[in-house]
Amino acid sequence: MPRVPLRHGEGNKEHLTSFGGLAALSLDALSSVAYGPEAIVLVLVAAGTSALRLTVPITLAIAGLLVVLVVSYCQVISVHPDGGGAYAVGKKDLGPTVSLLAAASLVVDYVLTVAVSLAAGAASLASAFPSLGHHILAMCLIGLVLITAVNLWGIAESARVLMLPMVAFLAAIFGVIIVGLVRAHPAIVVGSAQPVHVSEALGTIVILKAFAAGCSALTGIEAIANGVPTFRRPRASRAQHTELMLGALLGAMLIGLAVLIAREHVAPRGGVTVLAQLTAGSFGTGWAYYATNIAVTVVLALAANTSFGGLPVLMSLLSTDDRLPHLFGLRAERPVYRYGVVALAVLAAVLLLATGAATHRLIPLYAIGVFIGFTISQSGLVRHWHGRRSRRWRLRAALNGTGAVLTATAAVVFLASKFTSGAWVVVLTVPALMLLFSRIQSYYRAVGLELDLGRHPNRPLPAESLVIVPVGGISKLTEHALHAALSLGDDVVAVSVHPEAAQSAAFRAEWDRWNPGVRLDTLNSPHRSLVHPIVDYVRRAQQDDRQVAVLIPEVQPRRWRYRILQNQRGLLLATVLRASTDAVICTIPYRLTTR
Amino acid sequence: MPRVPLRHGEGNKEHLTSFGGLAALSLDALSSVAYGPEAIVLVLVAAGTSALRLTVPITLAIAGLLVVLVVSYCQVISVHPDGGGAYAVGKKDLGPTVSLLAAASLVVDYVLTVAVSLAAGAASLASAFPSLGHHILAMCLIGLVLITAVNLWGIAESARVLMLPMVAFLAAIFGVIIVGLVRAHPAIVVGSAQPVHVSEALGTIVILKAFAAGCSALTGIEAIANGVPTFRRPRASRAQHTELMLGALLGAMLIGLAVLIAREHVAPRGGVTVLAQLTAGSFGTGWAYYATNIAVTVVLALAANTSFGGLPVLMSLLSTDDRLPHLFGLRAERPVYRYGVVALAVLAAVLLLATGAATHRLIPLYAIGVFIGFTISQSGLVRHWHGRRSRRWRLRAALNGTGAVLTATAAVVFLASKFTSGAWVVVLTVPALMLLFSRIQSYYRAVGLELDLGRHPNRPLPAESLVIVPVGGISKLTEHALHAALSLGDDVVAVSVHPEAAQSAAFRAEWDRWNPGVRLDTLNSPHRSLVHPIVDYVRRAQQDDRQVAVLIPEVQPRRWRYRILQNQRGLLLATVLRASTDAVICTIPYRLTTR
User: Fold this and answer.
1) Mutate to test the interface with A, among B320, B465, B586 (most CBs of A within 10 A)
2) Between chains, do A586 and B591 touch, taking CB under 8 Å as contact?
3) For residue A463, which phi and psi values (nearest 5 degrees)?
4) pLDDT, tens digit, 9 for 90 and up, residues A55-92
5) Statement to judge: residues A397 and A268 lie in one domain
6) How many domains does chain B have?
7) Do B547 and A473 count as a contact with CB atoms less than 8 A apart?
8) Shortest CB distance from A589 goes to which of B459, B483, B582?
């Protein structure tokens, strides 16, 4: 069984430079400029096109929050150099319930990252190729299948491979901004103008909603703090360097795009994203337009892909804390890893189908979870500074406290304003996941108590052993099984089941002619049941103090498709014996060479 | 695990009287009067309503064939008192290829019996309740789900329970015939008249097609010969008695209904079956009409149910002959029985969906297989008489030879006339099944040769044994596993896997403090893989001549839903070890009492 390729942070640790870290850990954050500014425009336009002039001030406020978050995460990095993340911070500083909340919202967010990135990527591609406009959902599902296949197959992403699309993406976006600012007028206005239905008055509520919606551009900036162990030493300072780079790049892009939006009076237009409109305004609709849209699509698809690396790591952390089945601790085992990949893909597909792959319907759900995580990280830091009372702790606590209040406000605004249009899903899912994790944890705790986990049980002593070998005929397989049984047991008995006494007698005569040196017990079963007579026999054998084992030989055909022809009876017998007796169940393979 | 209830012929053998045998084994045959006469009418009307006058002569010809078949099956019963059936007859007298053909057509027929009976039953119910007319397919699927559920749950049908519906059915049909013959004119004409499209000239082809279609009324008369062992002694004569009763009843019903059809000028009418038209003609549309239609529906549903009893028996016979996985020999085991029930239900559902539950589209497919079976049985008898050359063998052989030619003709006519409208499915399926059975048989034969099945292998000798116990911690579970390992092995070693050397050292220190008297080997796995280090360890241990066993403790939670939380790692380990080493894999259950 081949090994699952390494993900970030495994095996080859300490390999990321600051710039490599940006490619490996920040594509999700950087690519959110494809939907964040658009989310602001969509909210504001509901209060009339004149409201769009608020885009720049609102973006500046978001950039302010970005500064707070970046500084805050730099502190998280120095406080938790082993990889922070809301889950670890919450567990350490804020207690089990908060860490459960963090875990649940992270799980929801991994699913939503996949869905949002695919939906935004499809919208970007459809802006370049309008004939794809009616197939957004289909494109998302095809993209999802491709990403899932790549992950099932197991391609290790490397920072070097991700570098090229990231550089292309940054060059394209900054190209749009710089060329756009230099031009007096937009080169081309693309997309069909839509009638504006003014449904709300321009007031605090709309501004708050636009602010909260635009905050979706901040999703993903926590990833660097989660991934500190993947940096080259000195890890913390390299990671902080990357976090600052990310903040600077993201802030500059957001503000630049907002200024362009205001200058070019960009409004939602049918079938063309806001970013694509700005691109056309700067570059026209020649090759540069196509190249930019494709770069955006590729980076969004890669952002979707990061969840497939991240969720297994989180599930493994949760299983270490007894909050998910221990199985998920073995994330390097391919079958376990595949469970996770397929589960994530199915959930993302459900979300895409439920929302019709509309980015603006997914973003509120997405942002709620992300902002819960931000709030938890910042609150944890406040608690941390308060507990340590180191130098300048009040200033630090005030900074993180402000961040916590702002991000909590954004989460509440999302939740309240979008409750009926989908946010209730998050409100149901997050507590349900928390309950699940906590039920699993209390189950494992009870089992641990029952098993005296961590104490020293009695010293195990050997007992006499009896090995029972069910036989159906005399062959090399029988010899193979009896050899193993004689090696393992102090006493060995072969058992055969026959419909009638005559057949039993005939088989006994044949057995005696062979004379294998093992005694035979024959059982009669007029109902042609194999399992029950043997189960009863094993139960009777267990009545003394001997250790009873049942040894079942298994023919292993060379080809998989012959599996159904072999061992099914043994499998059935083993299953029933396991459920209804305390015997040791042993299976011994006999490898066929036939065909 | 509760036992599957007994089917006919198991356990309580020799319990059927002649009349009981009619109820237990002939519902399928008797109920075919619900679709056989209708099939004739449907073919003839294509040559104009005047062609309908041929209904009586064609039915008389079919009754003649019925006589030949009944006499022939009486002979099958005396020649094969252990239960004949086309499969057994073919295997004994006509060689392996013919018996494969018989087996394949029987499998196809079991599926089609379910589909045809349900479709005809739904049509009968819709005749009584016209509002159900647009929901024939849905009614069939609901009926299928109910029958499947009953069979999964496992209700044993008894001849006594079946007696009542059979008597009601016979009373109703003979009531329709007698009252109808006494009346001068039909009481009421139901159903809406349909325009007749004359698409064929009345000639030999149409008459042959009508004959072949009407022969579908003969399906099921082989069941008594298959079930001889279920009769009370003297079995053969009781079974022959039942066969004769069936022939007389079926013949009388077919001729009586044909005469009524001719007298009342019955033609296909929208939404009402031919039998329902005759019922209304005799009884009017009062309670007797509803009662008759319901009795017909119930008997058809019970006829569908008989396949669920019959297919497992056939599969068990095939598995005894190495033509199906040996697993199916264990038909008394509930999981095996359930596979068969679910597979049959799924295939019948596919057929119903593909044909829209239209009886007239299913009947040709059905009849082909049945008539292949008839032909094989009769040809086998010809060969039998020829081989024995007993008294009057020429007469007997001539009788069966005639039957074989007639039934073969019917099969060929069905096949040719319905090839493009569905019979090609049978033409593909039957050889595909034959190929499958024969591939399975040659696989088992090759394996038997490799295993020296039936010869005496060497006498097995014991070897030294080493039992490896993977441990993840120290608990009562560890003690339990080590106790069993010490009982079974000459040498025992515990193995633990840790991500880093420090953890290994800590666990070793803990182990030494416990001092269980078993040595510990620690393995390091920086990739968090549990399976590979242990597989490598086992492979190394197998390099000497010792018998190596790996003992994996399994926590057995009290509730099923906790299964996912336990043992998944052990299961994964066992699966990989089984596939990639020759070690004996032992599992030992540890039953939790927690919750």
Assistant:
1) B586
2) no
3) -125, 170
4) 999 999 999 989 988 988 888 888 887 765 778 778 88
5) yes
6) 2
7) no
8) B582
